[in-house]
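Reference record
================
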Amino acid sequence: MHDPRNREVLRLAAPVGLAFIPLGIALGLLITHAGLAWWWAPVFAAVLYAGSLEFLMVGLAATAAPVAAVALTTFVVNSRHVFYALSFPLHRVRRPAAKLYSTYTLSDEAYAVAVSSEARDWTGRQILLMQLVFHLIWTVSSAAGGLLGAALPIERVRGLDFALTALFIVLALDAFRQRPDRVTAAAAAGCALGAWWLAPGQLLVCAFAAFTGVLLVRYAVRPEGVADAG
């Protein structure tokens, strides 16, 4: 950790990592107030490690949703990772086990940091360090939220689920500043508004499904455009 390159990784990842803390606490609180035991919070965080999907899974697990519904939701929400693979620097991670872990912990936040101009010269070890830090912060903060939710008699948690939305907005704005792509931004906004209007109860799943369809069409028409958009 005394390596100056590692300190640079931590410096760049720190703002996003700090944002994980209230998000993880929010997840832990939501899990306990959905009627699940507190220890499900670190299990969700460490094993699923899928951000928005984890918040959806709280409701699915609490209502004992059918396996088919869980599988479909997981596929639709996480299908965006297929497009991340087009520009995420996984080729820098050499060892098979390390490459497997890097693939497993590929998140929106890790992608945003890894493809930034500051991380252009990072080695595979530095990329893994960044992903490991994010994974640990998310798991520990979720466990803290679970314990807090189990200890405090809060009848209802209001507004904490919006913390994830706020983080995604910040990441989207930062990504647009680095790689301005008005077509992709407009398509994402249009899909979100359309899903909100047509299926407000399933906004996230429907918006992701529609946006995935738009990206597939764009890739079929102009593959290099989607790859450059990242």
